[in-house]
Amino acid sequence: xxxxxxxxxxxxxxxxxxxxxxxxxxxxxxxxxxxxxxxxxxxxxxxxxxxxxxxxxxxxxxxxxxxxxxxxxxxxxxxxxxxxxxxxxxxxxxxxxxxxxxxxxxxxxxxxxxxxxxxxxxxxxxxxxxxxxxxxxxxxxxxxxxxxxxxxxxxxxxxxxxxxxxxxxxxxxxxxxxxxxxxxxxxxxxxxxxxxxxxxxxxxxxxxxxxxxxxxxxxxxxxxxxxxxxxxxxxxxxxxxxxxxxxxxxxxxxxxxxxxxxxxxxxxxxxxxxxxxxxx
Length: 280
Fold this sequence. Notes:
By secondary structure, this protein is of the alpha+beta class.
């Protein structure tokens, strides 16, 4: 039987050998293991970004895949190092510092165990405490994927309710009205909102609708316009705005080939409020 694949992400960047060390550690444990990357360009220390990336990546890998996520500003401290077994059968090896937030909500965590470092930590670097990505998470993930240890041998279980989670901002929804916020921007400058695709539809919005969008910076109104809700940005002319269902489960506003964020000179460090009103 083919062994589970290990899939990694981190905030290590790609301009050093850190990522290669993690891949190499997996091969030291078992030379037959297959390893892949999600990204190693998560913004430094941005645990929420790591969690967000996992929630739209994990569902598109086979059940049993072992994910390693290392965005770990608390490395070497008392924060738990954990392996979560998800309800879809996959595993996530990560510091329990908020990284599991979106997965816990979207997929669900069946069981979580704290890594026993006496057994599942690489013994030859026991005096190094700042590279758990290599010495603890990659090493433990490789032992699990290769079958050297079972999930039960990772370490002691602890209650799923004790998983560290960040507060997730929610939208206010009523018939024909959604009050939401811009939560982040994708690489194309599109604004990802805090309203889920399914919630938007529950509020009565349908593909093809015209939507009045009011964009606010506190009390200051930046924009009040009507834009279409379509399947994709290609349904509007170049430079025009559109609302669509994003791959990450959240409604998104884009300017076709025009970078919505830059078009309206939005500050990525600010939180903007958005009102979406169905035009009848």
